[in-house]
């Protein structure tokens, strides 16, 4: 990270804070962005981002704070310009900022949908689009985006969040392909760290949640995500782009990405009736089951 300039959104708490601190400890100058909102995106508090910056400076690093919302396109262009003015350029973008507005889908309001999509998906676009101009001119740069198993695997009560996070995976893939000619990379991390966002995920009874809280705090900590983010942002990952990686406890994962896995062909073409006769039986064992994240990751993280 020596000599690099990194923008980390959502850097006031949790995973974003730990990434900002570790990047600074490894030599990067950091723009710590966080509007200090509550988990559902309400309110504004400068303290979290300011505290991250103060800790970096106290440890001998260089950092400035930005308190604007990632959902505002013009504000994010201003933030990137602020970073370039303060530190000379921008080398790294970590799209980490997020909110939750959980609801079972048939009860989800437009406002709940819109708010989450704007912060996660629009926010990732807004910061990335502004930084892309600098990356293209200097012919280098790295994007690290936070996605989620809610989108990659599945979750209950989070259709807005899942859609936004899976959209970010598509955005990252496009960035990796389109900007590779400028030596720019883009990757995703699907974290499983105990944080206020993870803690709020629905699907378990209050008793089940309470029984697992202490264990999860010990086994899935935000600082366990930071080393992977720092690696992906560094020149050591020069050959890694367009990938989706996971981090859970002290385990890392590489996720596959959607490709055809079965084919069916009829020389005389298809009718609805022949599709119904052949497709279910031929593909039944290959269908992706309706599993939640906790079904796929059934073992303890250590």
TrEMBL record:
InterPro entries assigned to the protein according to its UniProt record, in alphabetical order: KR_dom (IPR057326), NAD(P)-bd_dom_sf (IPR036291), Peroxisomal_Beta-Oxidation (IPR051687), Sc_DH/Rdtase_CS (IPR020904), SDR_fam (IPR002347)
Pfam families per the UniProt record, alphabetical: adh_short
Domain Ketoreductase per the UniProt entry, residue ranges: 4-200
SMART domains: PKS_KR (SM00822)
Membrane-spanning intervals of the chain: none
Family membership: Belongs to the short-chain dehydrogenases/reductases (SDR) family.
Descriptive protein name: 3-hydroxyacyl-CoA dehydrogenase
Organism lineage string: Bacteria, Pseudomonadati, Pseudomonadota, Betaproteobacteria, Burkholderiales
